[in-house]
Amino acid sequence: MGNFEFPWQYNFPPFFTLQPNADTRRKQLDAWRSLVLDYHRHNKQYTLDIAEAQSSDLFFNKSINRKLSLESINTVLEELRKTENLEWKDKSKKQCMIMWRSPAEWAKLIYQWVTNNGMNNTVCTIYELQNGDDTKDEDFHGLDSWLLDKALKLLVSQHKAETISYDGSDGVKFF
Amino acid sequence: MDRFAWTDGSLAHQEQIITHQNSVRLYDGDNKTNFDRGNLKLTSFRLIWTADKDKKCVISLSLSLVILLEEQGGGFNRSPKIILHLSAVDAYKPPGPIASSKHSFIKLSFQDGGKTEFYYALKDTLARRGWDLPAANKSPQKPPQKSIRTGIGGIEERLQQKHKDTDKDITQAFQDLSKLMNKAEEMVKLSKNLTQKIKDKRGEITDDETVQLKSYLLSLGVADPVTRETHGSGDTFYKELARQVSDVMTQPLQECGGIMPLSDVYCRMNRARGVEMLSPDDLVNACRLMSIMRLECRLQTFESGVMVLHLQEHSEDESLQDTVCRVESTGSLSADELARLIGLSVILSRERLLAAERKGELCRDDTAEGLRFYRNLFMTQ
């Protein structure tokens, strides 16, 4: 996993001040939105803790000593929520899931892998999907359980899979 | 009788009423006058007589004019009288009921008695010379008092003294100012005369000399200021004023980049006018008419409420472009840096930057060190 390459805006001081001009602000927030998603995709991170956000590289560029204010961070996250790339984990909005791929996209990706490997009508465990040797090269390897669960539920609703549990471990059967 | 003056009956500072008597008739010398029945008041400064019939008919005689008192007893069908011998008329005496009189004494005739009491009161008052007191009394007594008094009383007294001194200083200061105003008025008059003479003698003096003299006059002030007196009130006054402001300010505006805060304009206008001061309201009202009148100068109000006067040819686009170029060449600018670069006030520089930001040409970087502006790379890249 190489170093994440930040976009040019990251070194542009005004990027860290929310712009009052509506048009400019739109562009700025779009840039923030894609930065947050790219950053999480690159680092395969799925959750964001508000308390830690301000000190993370993502919102704090130490080289130019600019930091996005907490208020602005919330504005950016709200943007992400509007585009359904974010879901709050709790009501107090302290932690959130960053979905750089939507559950539907994940579901599609998983189902494709299943058909490509001829695993239709077989059962595999959730653990196998997340951490198994077979999925090592797949994007969904190491996918957050919460997100995986959402994706599988979507497949169930499409009648492409069925979740089963036995002996305390969860499994899934693809059709 | 010519020593009497009309008055409204109000008392002067430190003047006190000592006694009064009804039904008193005034005699001019030995002759009866029309002031036949009235109330006579004795104060520490004056005698004040008010007619019974007409309370607005009030005349007064300054006690300082009284040289000698004489009593005249009454008799059958004659009321007792007091005779007052008077000194010559004071040249600065306010107008009175009788302009001149050959008698240098008057008589007070007490028709309802009370003469004796009045006589002694008057004599006493004259002896005390109350009208001289305010000046004479203070100076010799004050200094020793000052050093003796201590405690709260002393402090209060000192404060009072301080107030008095400040009051005196202020009055003196304003006296100087009014003198200055008078002189300035003369100067304006002189310059007006000179202007008129130049007009009359056109041809005899060369154009160069005329221009030179006029420039001298202008450096003294506006030769012929527009005032409410000369140009009436309301619209005409404002229109003329607007024209004058525009004429006077065009050159200074050109010299300082085509734009100036209204406060500066106000100072410059009043400095140029010298005496006939403008009120801020008048200036604003006049400037509002400028765009309707299609004058050289225009009033502009920024969104922050700052008002400026700018030249008509000075277009906003141009200054916007200039601002953006300056920001681009330096990378980023704060309002005071821009002010230093283009020789404009910080407020106006800030307005320029904000205007450029509103147009989407610049974007801001708001940190603890202050507000800086950058090219709006969000829109261009």
UniProtKB/TrEMBL annotation, chain A:
**Species whose genome carries this gene:** Capitella teleta
Record-level GO cellular component terms: ESCRT II complex
Any Pfam family from its record, for instance, is ESCRT-II
Q: Could you state one GO biological process linked to this protein? A: macroautophagy
Gene3D superfamilies named among the record's database cross-references? Winged helix' DNA-binding domain. Chain C. Domain 1, Winged helix-like DNA-binding domain superfamily/Winged helix DNA-binding domain
Location in or out of the cell: Cytoplasm
- State the protein's name: Vacuolar protein-sorting-associated protein 25
Main location per the UniProt record: cytoplasm
User: Could you say which protein family the record assigns here?
Assistant: Belongs to the VPS25 family.
Q: Mind listing the GO molecular function terms for this protein? A: protein homodimerization activity; structural molecule activity
Q: Which InterPro entries match?
A: ESCRT-II_cplx_Vps25-sub, ESCRT-II_cplx_Vps25-sub_N, WH-like_DNA-bd_sf, WH_DNA-bd_sf
**Record carries keyword Cytoplasm:** yes
What keywords sit in the KW lines?
Cytoplasm, Protein transport, Transport
Automatic annotation (TrEMBL), chain B:
**Domain GLUE N-terminal: start-end pairs:** 1-138
* GO CC aspect terms: ESCRT II complex; late endosome membrane
Which is a GO BP term held by this UniProt record? protein transport to vacuole involved in ubiquitin-dependent protein catabolic process via the multivesicular body sorting pathway
Localization annotation: Cytoplasm; Endosome
Which keywords does this Swiss-Prot/TrEMBL entry list?
A: Cytoplasm, Endosome, Protein transport, Transport
Q: Which InterPro entries match?
A: GLUE_dom, PH-like_dom_sf, Snf8/Vps36, Vps36, WH-like_DNA-bd_sf, WH_DNA-bd_sf
Q: Name one GO molecular function term.
A: phosphatidylinositol-3-phosphate binding
Keyword Protein transport on entry: yes
Give the matching Pfam families.
Answer: EAP30 (PF04157), Vps36_ESCRT-II (PF11605)
Q: How does it assemble?
A: Component of the endosomal sorting complex required for transport II (ESCRT-II).
Similarity remark: Belongs to the VPS36 family.
Q: What is the protein's known function?
A: Component of the ESCRT-II complex (endosomal sorting complex required for transport II), which is required for multivesicular body (MVB) formation and sorting of endosomal cargo proteins into MVBs.
Stated name of the protein: Vacuolar protein-sorting-associated protein 36
Species source reads: Capitella teleta
